[in-house]
Amino acid sequence: MKAVEVTGLTVALDDGSVIVDDVSFGLESGQVMGLVGESGSGKSTVALALLGFAKRGANITGGKVVVGGVDLLALAPNDLREARKKLIGFVPQDPATALNPAMRIGTQLTEGMLGTKKDNLPRIREVLETVGLPSDDAFLRRHPQELSGGQQQRVAIAMAVAKGPELIVFDEPTTGLDVSTQARVLEMVARLCADNGMAAVFVSHDLAVVGTVGDLVTVMYAGQILETGSREEVLLSAAHPYSIALLESVPSTRQRLPLVSIPGRAPAPGAEFEGCVFADRCAFVEDRCRESAPALVATSTGGAARCVRVDHVRRNQTMLVKEPLHSAEGRAEGDASVLSVRNLDASYGRTQVLYDMSFDVAPGECLAVVGESGSGKTTMSRCLIGLHEDHSGTFVMDGKPLPPRLRDRSKEVKQRMQYVFQNPYGSLNPRETVATAVMVPLKHFYGDRGKAARAKAQEALERVEIPWRLADRYPAELSGGQRQRVAIARALACDPSLLICDEVTSGLDVSVQASVVELLRTLQDDGLSMIFITHNLAVVRSIGDRVVVLSQGRVVESGAVESVLIDPQHPYTRGLLADTLEVDRPDPETSDLPG
Amino acid sequence: MIRTRPREQGAQAPPSNLTRRVLTSRQTRLGLIMLLGMILFTIVGPFLAPHSPTAVIAKPYASPGDGLLLGADSLGRDIVSRILSGGVNLTWMGIAATAGGVTLGTTIGLVAAFAGGIVDTLLMRVVDVLLTFPTIIMAILFVSMVGPSRILLVILVAIGLTPGMARVMRGAARPVMRREHVMWARTIGLPSRHILMREVLPSVTSPLMVEIGLRLMWSVVGLASLSFLGFGVQPPAADWGLMVSENKDGLAIQPLAVIIPAACVALFTIGGNLFAEGAARVIGRTEGARS
Amino acid sequence: MAIETTTDNAVKAAPTPGPSQRSALPWLIARRALTGLVTLWCVSVIVFVATQAMPGDVAHIILGPSASAEQVAQLNQNLGLDQPLLSQYWNWLSSVLTGDMGDSLVSGQPVSELLAERIFNSATLTAIAMVLILPLSLLVGLLAAVFRDRLLDRSYLGTSLIVTATPDFVIGSLVIALFGTVVFKVLPPVSLIPPGDVPWEHPRQLVMPLAVMVLVGVTYLSRLVRVSFIDVLESEYVQLAIIKGLPMRRILFRHALPNALAPSIPAASIMAAFTIAGSVVIEYLFAYPGIGSALVDAVAGHDLPMIQAIIMLMAVAFFCFNQLADVLGTLNKSR
Fold first, then answer.
1. Looking at residue A155, what is its pLDDT?
2. DSSP helix/strand/coil, A397
3. Residues A115-136: tens digit of each pLDDT
4. CB-based contacts of B112: which residues, under 8 Å, 6+ apart?
5. Which of C166, C159, C180 is nearest to B263 (CA)?
6. Which GO terms label this protein's molecular function in UniProt (chain A) (predicted)?
């Protein structure tokens, strides 16, 4: 008998729309299954349903979840509570909100266990040590807000592990963490599950993360499992067109690949389909795909995929193998830089966050600025655009000195330098249509109104591949990727010479990120200079010409992307690169380094 | 920077939707109907009154009958006529005070949030001082010396509504100031007026709508209470609040002379509250804020 | 170096309540006290301007249009109205600060003597009301939150919506009609307390005004308790507690209650402040001898020193409760 056996698990909203549709899988003791999906795929709902829990407004409407021989969904409320206590551990996404701020760590660790606090304390101390935390009384007396993010996550993991459950469910436990912390936590998760013989379900949106911890990988989309199998089967020889497309859209630190995005837009949770849920976006679609919903069929390699054309897809997917792109090289030396920054220091009140930063941006170049949270990268970009005024240092733009403060800058400067923000949901005025958003700066800078403005706006929107029929929509009616494109179009309408992109892809799903990165690359080919701020080395590899590595407010390394990522000099960069997870590539020939 | 995961909530619907959305709730529709009904009643009422509201035509507390549907009040005036005529002042004064207080409060709140720094501190200090006087005490203070002029009452109630309104709008506008579209507008140098009117104000219409309902309720409560205390509309004019206090000694003999005007005031204010709370709930449900 | 984050480093990096935070507290209190003093000074200026410095002849307003020239001159001299405004203000402020509020124009007795008993009566009424309101609000709010969207909660919300919207004098009049005069004549319709008696010697007189204050107070405060409880019940830590398999009682009282209570405490303080303003209407309605009804009488009698004293008193009390609410709120946040 398997340790965990899930069959036909179905979750519906109160209005009857199904958000998790007939999910089945089984796990042996000690096995870890990675459950991967983009936002809205229903993966977190599955994670909670494994505990017989549904959020307000949703209900588990069918199926079985058998853990340790007990069907959780058939239990009365009191028995279910006991079963949760004994059989299952849960690690939440954000421990900062999931640990009770008014209770001590020690109390929260022991309260979920059978037996008295005294009996459980030795076990708690032991587990705390295995997760690399202090186990003394002083630590147990602390409150969650006195711990760092990484420590909070370790406490949450210890809490789930301590009671020795049959199954542990991890709900995106590393999403808020830096790559280095993430690497440590994942290592620990794999070790704990193996040592204690626990089955685990690890939910994530990140293919690389799932590929690192999962013995099995399951891909979800629109509430259904589209593909499942061993890690090697799914990541190295994916059978479902969606899995293949998802893998194609993941950037790599090892080579500069063109990223392929998935056309169309992910369906809203609860959407209804006649046939295959992926048919509208699928490259291999046939008429029969739309007629009836395909079943999960075994593939030749031992996994299963929900596709009627599995064999055809498998045979033809090699066509998608990509040639590495070559980075634009040999920019004319001696060109005046678009922007040069010298000795930039910045602080918030008495805390200095940037120290003596200097760099240049050449015309047509994309300078990537990479750093972890707290490295000061966003402060730097805000200094450049004039939103953060507490700084010193000199800026020269197009050969002319650039005043540090926004109010001292000329209209022309404000037009030449444009900024795109991280959060696509906040960058557009929710009460203005797409067309108005693009026309506001046109009127402001060039006095364009009416027809002339609409024509220019249309041109800008077409450049970012937003069709004109969306012009009269409001931002709320657009997807995150579309909003980010509109924000870019709005910047382009100003005809800038320098575009500052602050983490513009980090709020987006990986397939959408691919399309935005590709768009920015085409703009760069048109000669636009760019400063691209990110925490993601793989994205740096995909788009940057030169890179500046920022750590704790100081530049630790800079140079051409190729050389820095292939042969990093500074230990920080080396560590960062080592901790950045990679999805294994199917074809080893293409990973030969260019040049 | 913690990576924010893609999320579809946080989005706000366009403006034309707000009114429509708010009116999908039965509660807000009922509230609006009650409010409009009471306003109509107070405006049309005086023309329907069978007698002059100030004419003494019967014995004090005369029972119903003899052409007087509800009898007579403490001075022998027709209760029906006084009720029909007794709301019009409350209506116009309430609406005017609300309009004044909401406009002034919103302006102060938005300017404070936008300007920040010393301007913000100064404006909020002034608001704090005003907040030290409960509306009713402030009104009594000035009315006691200047006399109960209706314009003065409107101004006083408007000033009484202002500080709370300013605080709420400042609170609502501050997160909007940190939103990317407002920062973007600043980076390209759009004029402050454009930013306030086009970028910020439309994003705070939801709390604004709720506050208008609430403030209307409070200004009517305040004005009626002042009349009841004798500092509002002065006798012999007909006014609901005044009627309650005039006739409360005869409650045992002629309870309707107290209960009906009291109920009229209550219907008016309950309408405002129904609308405000219903709107707040719809907005909370659709925009993810709490009700 | 960030990559090699060991356990020890991580522990050190975590924020601990350090000395900087503690030493900031006295500074915070000092700043708050200073702004509080400035605010109160502004209040005194407003009260003074509204009463003594209004355009028009104050003496005429007080004595009425038929007063003779001698009477006016006499009053002007008594109140010091013939002096320049600044020195009037200075004299007024300095005597207020020393506790001398002048003599009543109506009875000629010192204002402080006249008010002492009134203040005591009002404070007693408010204190009893608060003692009833706090536990009741907690209970009602908690029940409504636990039974959210069920019949109990909905009927509670409907009732509180109506009570919140209804002016105090309307509720009071209906209560009097119901229990005092028209339907059941079980309670005295007015709450006269003979001078020299303490209020609790006349419990029957207190029932109706207390009932109105408690009804209004509980509906206001319990709604805030309900909302903050619902927030907490929907929080991720309560969700995790459910997932951990903890019993409902432990979740409600150990996990939810301490977190839900925190935001309600400043609200209770704000409510106490509003009770002071509401007392004017309620005391007048029930003819209860407190400072609220004293204010109405003083205005009717144009008793200038009394008006000044009562309004200063109310503003200070109102201000203090508001400040208390602010301080409690700030403490909450910093925790």
1. 92
2. strand
3. 888 888 888 999 898 888 898 9
4. B119, B120, B123, B124, B166, B170
5. C166
6. ATP binding; ATP hydrolysis activity
* Residue A209 amino acid letter: V
Q: Report the alpha-carbon distance of residue A210 to residue A208 in Å, rounded.
A: 5
Question: What ipTM was reported for this prediction?
Answer: 0.81
Give the residue from A201, A222, A270 showing the smallest Cα distance to A50: A201
Average pLDDT score over chain A: 87
Which pLDDT belongs to residue A585?
66
CATH number of residue B277's parent domain: 1.10.3720.10
* CA atoms of A423 and A413, how far apart (whole Å): 24
**CA-to-CA dists, residue C86 to C48, C52, C312, angstroms:** 11, 11, 19
**Nearest Cβ partner of C237 from A97, A372, A571?**
A97
Closest CA of chain C from B190, distance in Å: 35
Q: Is residue C30 part of a domain?
A: no
Q: Are strands A304-305 and A224-230 parallel, antiparallel or unpaired?
A: antiparallel
Q: How far from chain centre, in Å, is Cα A505?
A: 8
Write down the architecture of domain A339-577 according to CATH.
3-Layer(aba) Sandwich (3.40)
Q: B190 contacts in A (CB within 8 Å)?
A: 440, 444
3-state secondary structure at position C28: helix
pLDDT, position B9: 36
C246 CB near a chain A CB, below 8 Å?
yes
> In this complex, which of A83, A94, A180 lies closest to C2 when CB atoms are compared?
A180
Residue B28 counted as domain residue: no
Residue B189 located in a structural domain: yes
Chain A residue numbers with beta carbons less than 8 Å from the beta carbon of C228 are none
Domain presence at residue B31: no
Give ∠ CA A63-A65-A70 in degrees, rounded to 5: 125
- Domain holding C189, by residue range, is 2-14+104-333
Which residue, among C37, C49, C81, C173, would best test binding to B if mutated, counting the most B CBs under 10 Å from its CB?
Answer: C173
Alpha helices (H) along A447-509:
450-463, 480-493
> Is residue B21 assigned to a domain?
no
Q: Supply the pLDDT for residue B10.
A: 37
Which among A39, A172, A444 is the nearest to B190, CB-wise? A444
- Out of A84, A102, A147, name the one closest to residue C245 (CB): A84
Q: Report yes or no on C129 lying in a domain.
A: yes
Q: What is the CATH number of the domain that holds C160?
A: 1.10.3720.10
B-chain residue closest to C300, CA distance: B144
Q: A1-221, which class in CATH?
A: alpha beta
**Number of folded domains that form chain B:** 1
Identify from C57, C170, C275, C291 which residue to disrupt to test chain B contact, counting B C-beta atoms within 10 A and taking the largest count. Answer: C170
Across the interface, whether the CB atoms of C169 and B241 are under 8 A apart is answered yes
- Give B120 to chain C, closest Cα distance, Å: 15
Residues spanned by the domain of B224: 41-60+78-290
Kindly identify which residue of chain C lies nearest to residue B141, measuring between CA atoms: C50
- The pTM for the full model equals 0.81
Separation in Å, CA of A239 to nearest CA in chain C: 35
Contact check, Cβ <8 Å, A146/C17:
yes
CA distance, residue C282 to nearest chain A CA (Å): 40
Report the C-alpha gap between A13 and A61 in whole angstroms: 9
Q: Please give the tally of structural domains in chain C.
A: 1
Strand partners, A9: A23
Check residue C17 and give its pLDDT: 38
Chain B: touching chains (3 or more CB pairs < 8 Å)? A, C
pLDDT at residue A109 greater than cutoff 50:
yes
Contact B198 A432 (CB under 8 A): yes
Close Cβ partners of C12 (under 8 Å, ≥ 6 residues apart) = none
Of the candidates A175, A386, A427, the beta carbon closest to that of B181 is on: A427
Could you give the residue range(s) of every CATH 3.40.50.300 domain in chain A? 1-221, 339-577
**Are A112 and C245 in contact (CB < 8 Å)?**
yes
